[in-house]
């Protein structure tokens, strides 16, 4: 079974990471006896669970307790192990954590005052109210010491882990699972476009995971807020076995658009089928991949066992001319139809059980 790298369980004070002061050491504090109100809060939240915290107003308890439960969440209710963090977590202030109230695994996104510029504020405003079954869910948000902290669900299986494990086993994904994942991804992107949000990322496969039932989850745009500099850094830091995902028109200086999203969707679809990036960097040679993208060359054909529908969809998405690519709406409709048709005869396991 392909699992996201699990959070380490050594919950020691030495390993604890202070998300409000990343550069400082975490000072261990002597445990202080809590008040009766605090004990009641902890007991209720442990029973309710973090995922249902947003609906806590529906509980049959006094309003004063509701306010206390909903508004008094703090970083002390979460444990972040510094051994689980990588450079991307630190750069984007995104921290895998364990909620100490119900021991669920979550992601914490921190936006300190020094980073809350107009661009970030506009992104946060745009993503208010975003709710889709194929987008990571924002569970709750609170402010501590001027830092906005957003708590997200943490789907247990990452796409990059699935691909790595299948490559090691020299196995291809069943085509039904490829279409099912692609259908969920297209649905999420279409939903965001309808809300006026153009989802942009230089690492599309790293922004996808799956929940326990195998449903695709696209990272919220609040977690890793993309910028032009991020895209440049991604290309500069590319190495063997990674790929380039920048559409040709963006490399030529044009603005990222819905047609550019279709290119990214095609790259993801290709990688699901081929088990490697469409435009793979060979060793330290990034320029061949760049030239292939700029000159509109299609990647190597996927395995002959896959349907013409799949091959045609990949090739249409990766056309060099943005105007000749299908729209996100067309892709969503096509993926929905093909997935439903293939589901009727599929007898295998879900992607999280492979």
UniProtKB/TrEMBL annotation:
Q: Which residues form the Protein kinase domain?
A: 80-337
Entry-linked InterPro entries: Kinase-like_dom_sf, NEK_Ser/Thr_kinase, Prot_kinase_dom, SOCS_box
Task: Write out the entry's keywords from A to Z.
Answer: ATP-binding, Kinase, Nucleotide-binding, Transferase
**E.C. numbers:** 2.7.11.1
Extract the coiled-coil ranges from the record: none
Question: Looking at its record, which EC class is this enzyme?
Answer: transferase
Identify the residues that the record assigns to the SOCS box domain, covering every copy: 26-69
Q: Which residues form the signal peptide?
A: none
User: In which domain of life is the source organism classified?
Assistant: Eukaryota
PROSITE patterns (alphabetical): PROTEIN_KINASE_DOM, SOCS
Pfam families per the UniProt record, alphabetical: Pkinase, SOCS_box
PANTHER family (UniProt xref): SERINE/THREONINE-PROTEIN KINASE NEK, SERINE_THREONINE-PROTEIN KINASE NEK2
Name-wise, this protein is: non-specific serine/threonine protein kinase
């Amino acid at each position: 079974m392909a699992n996201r790298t699990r959070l380490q369980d050594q919950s020691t004070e030495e390993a604890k990471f202070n998300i409000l002061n990343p550069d400082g050491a975490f000072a261990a504090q002597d445990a202080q006896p809590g008040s009766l109100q605090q004990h009641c809060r902890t007991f209720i939240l442990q029973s309710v669970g973090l995922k249902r915290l947003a609906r806590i107003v529906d509980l049959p308890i006094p309003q004063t307790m509701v306010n206390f439960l909903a508004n008094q969440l703090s970083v002390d209710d979460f444990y972040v192990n510094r051994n689980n963090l990588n450079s991307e977590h630190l750069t984007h202030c995104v921290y895998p954590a364990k909620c100490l109230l119900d021991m669920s695994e979550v992601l914490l996104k921190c936006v300190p005052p020094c980073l809350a510029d107009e661009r970030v504020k506009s992104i946060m405003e745009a993503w208010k109210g975003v709710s889709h079954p194929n987008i990571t869910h924002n569970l709750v948000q609170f402010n501590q010491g001027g830092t906005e902290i957003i708590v997200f669900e943490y789907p247990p299986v990452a796409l990059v882990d699935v691909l790595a494990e299948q490559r090691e086993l020299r196995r291809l994904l069943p085509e039904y699972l490829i279409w099912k994942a692609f259908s969920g991804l297209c649905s999420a992107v279409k939903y965001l476009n309808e809300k006026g949000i153009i989802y942009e990322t230089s690492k599309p496969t790293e922004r996808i995971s799956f929940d326990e039932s195998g449903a695709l989850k696209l990272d919220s745009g609040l977690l890793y807020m993309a910028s032009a500099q991020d895209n440049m850094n991604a290309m500069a830091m590319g190495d063997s076995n990674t790929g380039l995902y920048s559409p040709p028109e963006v490399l030529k200086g044009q603005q990222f658009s819905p047609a550019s999203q279709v290119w990214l969707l095609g790259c993801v679809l290709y990688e699901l089928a081929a088990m490697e990036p469409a435009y793979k960097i060979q060793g330290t040679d990034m320029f061949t991949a760049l030239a292939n993208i700029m000159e509109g060359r299609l990647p190597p054909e996927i395995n002959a066992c896959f349907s013409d529908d799949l091959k045609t969809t990949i090739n249409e998405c990766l056309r060099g001319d943005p105007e000749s690519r299908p729209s996100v709406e067309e892709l969503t409709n096509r993926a929905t139809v093909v997935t439903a048709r293939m589901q009727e005869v599929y007898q295998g396991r879900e992607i999280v059980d492979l």
